[in-house]
Amino acid sequence: MQIALFVGPLLVLIGAFMGQPMDLDFNNFELISVVVAVLVANSISADGKSNWLEGTLLLATYVVIGLSFYFHPVIEGIG
Question: Is residue 6 part of a domain?
Fold first, then answer.
């Protein structure tokens, strides 16, 4: 919560200062990726214990999300 309330607005202000505007208008693909990451992290940390397999699952989730962003087609004019 602290990151969302501090870093988000700070990045908007820094981006405006540097001439690279950043708005907080995310597309559906980005929102779904964040929701999936939150759901997986929540399900892993729900019991309060962890092991190597759960850590591997988290790493695999983030690798899949990163690869999906890398291979996701960029369509100009649609955001």
Answer: no
